[in-house]
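User: Structure please.
Assistant: Input sequence and predicted structure:
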Amino acid sequence: MLGVILTGHGSFATGLYEAAVQIMGEQAQFTAVNFPDGMSSEQLEHQLNDALTVCDKGDGVVFLTDILGGSPFRFAAMLSYQYPHIEVISGTNMPLLLEMLMQRDAIDSASFRLLAINNGKQGVTSLWHENQKSPATNKECQDGI
C-alpha cells in the first residue's frame, strides 16, 4: 500500500486529514504535516522526514501538497530526489484525496500520480455545471455523502 502524506500551509493538511477520517475512518500509512506561520523551514523538513519514516512501508509514498512551489511542496520535492519511490502532487482537494485513499492499495506511485491529476480536475466543478447534467446526478448532489 502506498503511504500518503498531506502537507500545506497553515492547517491545510490537518483540515483535510480530519475531514477524510470523518468520511472514511482511520487510514493506515496516512498522516498530515502542517506548515503554520512561525514554523521554520528546518522544522518542516524534519517533520516531513519523520512522516516519511512512518508512512513508507516499501511500496512508495505520495506527498499531497497545497500549492506548487510553496515550502511544503519544495521540501517534499527534495525528498523525492533522494528516494525514487516518492511522488509529489500539488493542488490537492478533497475529491482527489478521498479517491486516492480508496485506490492506493491497487496501484503503484506512478499510476497514482496520473489518476490523482485526473481526479483532482474532475473534483472542481460548479452548481451550474452540475445542474446541466442528468436529473439523477442532481439528486446525488442533493442527497450528499
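The chain has one domain: 3-143.
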